[in-house]
């Protein structure tokens, strides 16, 4: 039996030679959430064609794959978090898989392998599905569960760009109709509450909710895992595919929330953030789903930042039910409330607080995913995710995780993400330490025993900072790296923190269809975090945005254990220390991107070590014969000109 290309040893990634490995890569790509070619949220649509869509050519047509993948590998990345969605595989109907898409994904993976890139598959979702404001699950599920997604907007059950946007208006963004980043409010709206609660807790909370002779949770999970198994079978013979993500940023639904008590802040039991605007409870959501008008308190932050009630708002003013005719409310049938439109009453305030969301719900789910993929190929790693907000409240991964699981949690500088501003004159040392502390704290909270390898599955920055100032400058003829100096500073500080912590990571994201248009961006809900855009290819450029922030050296493979590594973006000096294990015959490998070392590297090592430069792979190999500490210093042969990103 062959040894896997990547495995885990304790809390480290190791390669087939036993070398510790750092994985650095990118998410591919942001537009994989929507169908090809006209599924982007910048285009109007009502999802009526949800069974006929195709995701073939997301992230790009296969004939364009080599150009994109060579570029990604050339920047020094060695792994892809490749986005797929449940909808992309099973959009036509239950068990009716899109085999053309499965073959296409296999084609992308084989192309990536040709360029030396490893891959793990991310089954992606945001707020459940496209019909509920995000992406992920297929549309036919709603009718099978007794829901009519065509009524979600009228009932206020989902906040969807295609329903809220006025596409005839000229301005690129419409903050009055669809505020920036507002898609996330769906997690507390009725449609998401129903679907996520059913997915994770339907068997325990609503056992009478039966579909095809099984409870709703079993029905949903059977199809989700069936889609995963179908893709796994297509990829089983590609060694460079090293594993599967469990499910991107899963929501707990209503689990942990009181039935009717208003939440003014997230809690340990219910960690989804409470945003300004109408405040939903499960009780209000269930009433609205049944076709009742509901009065909601409206929240806004006070002077101290805490949420307070500032008014009232009517939801579902027209009394539109989202349950299909003849479908009884399964939560009422299970005893959560009386289901009455005239005199609604809570029957069990703690209905959604009966279960431990981590041990009772997430732990079995992780084991189901692991069994699904490892039935196909036993060596696959499990890239595990939980709801990212819960780690701030001391809730982490269950103790009984499947073997060879990876902590694939996400982190963002939420201030940059939400405000879309960054001051390049910030105190770099202070911000670098904040990033290091936050990322370290995330992993300490999520896996306090440090039992799993750590890979930061998502992090990144918006490129439309400061009202798209860089795009305006580009449109006016500005060129060169200095255009992205502020972006490069922010990214560089994030990578500094990752280096200090010796953490693997996949940056969000590379979108092949990205445009410098605030309405388009990555093609999904006006997000724009792609490190590449075709708009940046003018004049023979390679399309990179802020390349100096993310294309940088790191120890990819260590002939033993990595002790430390750091990169000074001002001088271009990279330093690494490795504890050598002389029983490992293969050398250490350090990524030396041409961006950082345009004239080649100048290398200094301890006596007794031998090094050689491998081109065009942009790798430096260093071999040591004896145990002990190996120090390697690499500097550019051509003197670097400091930029604002480096000063």
From TrEMBL:
<feature type="domain" description="Glycoside hydrolase family 5">
    <location>
        <begin position="65"/>
        <end position="252"/>
    </location>
</feature>
<protein>
    <submittedName>
        <fullName>Cellulase family glycosylhydrolase</fullName>
    </submittedName>
</protein>
<dbReference type="InterPro" id="IPR041036">
    <property type="entry name" value="GH5_C"/>
</dbReference>
<keyword id="KW-0378">Hydrolase</keyword>
<dbReference type="InterPro" id="IPR018087">
    <property type="entry name" value="Glyco_hydro_5_CS"/>
</dbReference>
<dbReference type="GO" id="GO:0004553">
    <property type="term" value="F:hydrolase activity, hydrolyzing O-glycosyl compounds"/>
</dbReference>
<dbReference type="InterPro" id="IPR017853">
    <property type="entry name" value="GH"/>
</dbReference>
<dbReference type="GO" id="GO:1901136">
    <property type="term" value="P:carbohydrate derivative catabolic process"/>
</dbReference>
<comment type="similarity">
    <text>Belongs to the glycosyl hydrolase 5 (cellulase A) family.</text>
</comment>
<keyword id="KW-0326">Glycosidase</keyword>
<dbReference type="InterPro" id="IPR013780">
    <property type="entry name" value="Glyco_hydro_b"/>
</dbReference>
<dbReference type="GO" id="GO:0016042">
    <property type="term" value="P:lipid catabolic process"/>
</dbReference>
<dbReference type="Pfam" id="PF18564">
    <property type="entry name" value="Glyco_hydro_5_C"/>
</dbReference>
<dbReference type="GO" id="GO:0000272">
    <property type="term" value="P:polysaccharide catabolic process"/>
</dbReference>
<feature type="domain" description="Glycoside hydrolase family 5 C-terminal">
    <location>
        <begin position="552"/>
        <end position="626"/>
    </location>
</feature>
<dbReference type="Pfam" id="PF00150">
    <property type="entry name" value="Cellulase"/>
</dbReference>
<dbReference type="InterPro" id="IPR001547">
    <property type="entry name" value="Glyco_hydro_5"/>
</dbReference>
<dbReference type="InterPro" id="IPR052066">
    <property type="entry name" value="Glycosphingolipid_Hydrolases"/>
</dbReference>
